[in-house]
Structures are given as C-alpha cells and as structure tokens.
Amino acid sequence: MPKQIAPYGSWRSPITARWIVADAVGLGTIALAGEELLWSESRPGEGGRTALVRRARDGAPHDVLPPPWSARSRVHEYGGGAFTAADEAVYFVDDREQRVVACALDGAAPRYLTPASARRHADLTLDARRGRLIAVCEDHTATPEPANFLVSIPLAGCAAGTTLVSGHDFYASPRLSPDGRTLAWLAWRHPSMPWDETELWVAKLDDQGLPRDARCIAGGGGESLFQPEWSPSGVLHVVSDRSGSWNLYRVCDADGAAPTLEALCPSEAEFGLPQWVFGMTTYGFASEHAIVCCYAERGTWRVARLDSRDGSLTPYDLPFIGVSGLVVRGPRAWFVGGSATAPPALVELDVASGAHHVVRRSASLDVDPGYVSAAQAIEFPTAGGRTAFAFYYPPANRDFAAPTGELPPLRVRSHGGPTAATDGVLKLPIQYWTSRGFAVLDVNYGGSTGYGRAYRERLKGAWGVVDVADCVAGARHLAERGLADPARLTISGGSAGGYTTLCALVFHDVFAAGASHYGIGDLAALAADTHKFESRYTDSLVAPWPAGKALYRERSPLQHADRLARPVIFFQGLDDKVVPPSQAEAMVAVLRAKKLPVAYVAFPGEQHGFRKADNIVRALEAELDFFGRILGFTPADPIEPVTIENFPPRQS
Question: CA-CA distance, 446 to 454, in Å (whole number)?
Fold first, then answer.
C-alpha cells in the first residue's frame, strides 16, 4: 500500500499521548523477600502512586500495598531506596507522611514504625539480627538547613529511632557486613555532589549495635565512590572513579596497615552512576568470586559476569542497551532492561547460562515496528575542537511520507541533571514525536555521565556554556547533513535541561522555538531558593555563591531576556520545591512584556517532574500543538488547543 503524502509533523500515529500512559508503569527498586521477588511501580494512571508488587507462585504480579498507600521517599527531594524486604515483610517509606511502615506479606494491615514528624527517610537497610532498620534520615526541623544522619529504627513499636552516625552534610548506602558486625556507608560535605567527592566509612558495631571507632578508608580528594557492597565472606567492595572512570574495587584491609583499593577489572567503561537517588546498584555477588555487573560504554549499557580472581569480564549476549537496578542472589539476577525496540522491562537472568526472561513489562501494549524509530548513536564536533555524543532518531511512520524536498523539523532534547545521561532505549514519548514526522536528537552534552570523569567535568564552571554549545552543535550537525530543516529546529528540556533550553534560545539564534519543563531562568534565584541537596551544586557548575554573583547574572536567561526573540512554552508543577514555580513565571512575564508568543501550562499538585497520567498527556499534546502552530503544521490528533499569548489562534 503506497504511503500517504503529508507534511512532517502532521502524520497520524497510533502512538498517542493517552496510549503511552494508558497501561504504562515506571519500574523501580527490586528486592527479595525470602524467595519472593518484589519491585516498585510508579503508576501515572493512579495519580503517580508508587505501588509495591510481588510475583506470586503462579508467576502473576500482585500488589502488596492497596491504594492509597504509596512507597516513595522525598529525602533530597528525589528520594529512592524507599523500601526493603525480609522473609515475611516489606518495610517502606509512606509517600504522604514520610514515615517508615512495616507491611507483612500475609495480608495484615500496614503499621507505622516511626511517629509523625518532620523527618524523612530513605535507603532502608535491614539489620535482622538486632530487629531494626538502618536508614538515612533527613530532619527538617533543623536550621538553617535540614540535618542528615544515619538512624536506627526498631521493628517493634513506633519510635523516632536512634542516631548512629552524624557530622557530615549527607549520607548514603548504609550496608551491613554478612556477620552483622561492621557497618559501611558513604558520606560527603558541601559543596561536593556525590559524583564529585565522597568518602567511604566503616565502623564496628558494639553489643548495642552502635558504631565504634569509625574510620574513613577511601575517598576524599576529588574521588567519587559509589555502592559499597560486601561479598558473601565479608570483603568490602566499592566503585571508584580514581582512574578517571567508575571502576569496581576490592578493599584490602590488612591488619595494622591502612586499607587500599584493588581494581578488579581496570577499564574505561563506567561501572557507576551519579547518585541522584538512593538505592542505585550496578553489581552484586552470585558467589564469593562471581560478580554480576552492568557497565556503560559510550552511552550503551551491558550486563556481564566478572571473575574477581583474574579480572576476566564476560558480557552476556542480551538485547538490552539500558540497564538499572541490578540485584543478584545466588544463581539468579534481576534488573530493569530496555532495548532500542522495546521499552524497559523487569528481567530475570540465569547467571550461569545467560538465559533470561521478562517478568514484568513497563508497558503491555505492543508497538508496531512500522512506527518505531531506533536510536542511532552519533558523535559530532562541538566547540573547542571537541566531540560530543547523542542519539539520533529519524522520522518513522509506515503510513506516511513527506512531500518531495521537505526536510523534517527537529526536536533537540536536553536531559536534566545536568550530571545525568540519556540512552538509546525505546522511549515512547520520543516515538510520539518521530512517528508524527519529527526528527529527534537526544544529546549527552559535556557533563553527562557514562563517558568518564573528564567528560563529566567539562561542565565544571561552564554550565550554560558547554551544554548549550553541544546542543547547538548537534542541531547544526543534522541540518548541515540534510537530516533536519534548519528553519524548524526546536529544543526542549526539563529541570537543568530546561535551563539549557532557555540559554540556547536566549544566547543563540539557531532554534525557532523551545519548550521549558520546570526549567531554570535565574541562577541567582536558584542559589537562594532551592533544597539542601543541590544548594551548593552551582558552586562547581558556575562559581561559588555569592562571590560569583556577576557570572550568575551573565549566565541567567532571565537577566538577558531582552535578547530572546523566539516563542517558548513553559510547563510547571506548582508544588515543585527543586525549581520553584517563580522561575517559570518570571520568564513568562518577560515574554508577555515583549509581546512574544508564550504559553504557560501549570499543574497543581505536581512536584519536580510530572507523575499523573492526565498531566503527562497534556504536556505532550500541548507541546505538539504549540510547535505545530509556531512551525506551521497541523497535527492529526484531536488536541485541546493550548493558549498562546501574542499569537493568533489556529484557524478551524
């Protein structure tokens, strides 16, 4: 059947915004309760509730928590590590009150382990021998900023718990040795972020379970450590970037000598991640010397078996290019994996044979390959004679083709963080655009993880410069090769990616329009009004505050809005504590005053990022409607028009 000829952007696609969220879940933390597999699911269709799910003996998934219970931590605002499991119970952080809750798997009603207070909890670790949990606690009664520490929470009764370790600004990853006698943890101080510099601490536990003679055994001095973990015999391991890449090390703690780190498999691959959330894992022990691990090379992830005796690394033959949440127990491992043609799924792996099967898909709907644009990893030249990386998606729709000679509009995506990364896993929101005739460029600009510490540190002191230059260079690279219409280049990003988007629109004239999702317009306002975890982040990304006030002004889109001459649409959660609504509203006011086309879509009840199905749908459709009206095409979808100020309405 011949394809219909229609302009790019106007193609009809079965990948609708409502279809994307209709049966989709976000797969999160994986845990084991005895032999039972459990995991968390973020469900847009249930108002963003995070459910805990168990695999029953019949293989079917069953909810552990009935609505409205939701397992979500808000420590550092981003949370993570919100539940752990034992033989007959799960322990989780209640999203509504941030109290720790016990829930027996026999169906008994959940019960609180901590009282109502201004405390938040994360990174729960079970100490079964002592009948307690060890967790990161964030106390919001402290001034001038919340206090973070490690706390012991008894499993019997309801109590605030006992402080175990304090004194640093931040803590993560409390991990007990197999014999229960030693506690390891990570700690760091302002102004470092955990991917800049952390310390690995250990302490013996006395008869009361209190740490004694705590000592720092690694880290500091610009070294980032990730995921301390004990082998079955009690040998501590950790991921470190001391070589320039996050590699896996064994802690050699000889009697009477200072501990040293021994690299198990020196490589330029990255075995670690930026700790934006708690509970992140990239390796685990199948036996004393058999380690199942995942690692990234140039933005692509693999799962492998590492023999710690000789350092041999044997990758499994798996289709997955994005991997997270790896958990290992004996002969089996579990992780969330996605490929270029399938969205993320919970996967079970046989460690010995490499055989795998899918336990739970994040979306049960099958995507017709005729509407799928597979990611193409590309490299392109950027400012300073350097190279940047991205994933390119050409338009793809089996039913449509564009008129001869027409080039597609381009949507450049700038990811958040900014110290995060994107990968080439099938993402239905990207396919929403490509199946309608857009090309998409998903950029891993300088500062992104997965390419080594040197690439990550390109952004030090250069946020708003390097990231923007890479997004601009990527768009030009595609336009010069005839893969995108140079007159219809757009850019979109969320959070830090929203800041990159606004900088690109203000300081460059490459893009025809942009979309800022809870993005930053004023760096000085961000430094003065954000949460503790990121309160000093801009010290390294821009300059120490307030000494670098002039540079903050120079890099702030709001302070140079007189240079902005492009239409912008803004999306904002009104309960956002990371990037407050005032940031978006100040930018909107400037565009209004300049009589530039501007749209503002605010979502009451949403925080940093959108979790509710209706709001996710509205954001996708409103951005498409906005770009369609600005770029001159009419979407095939029946979309509720977005209100664009200073711009004529679409003619019916």
Answer: 9
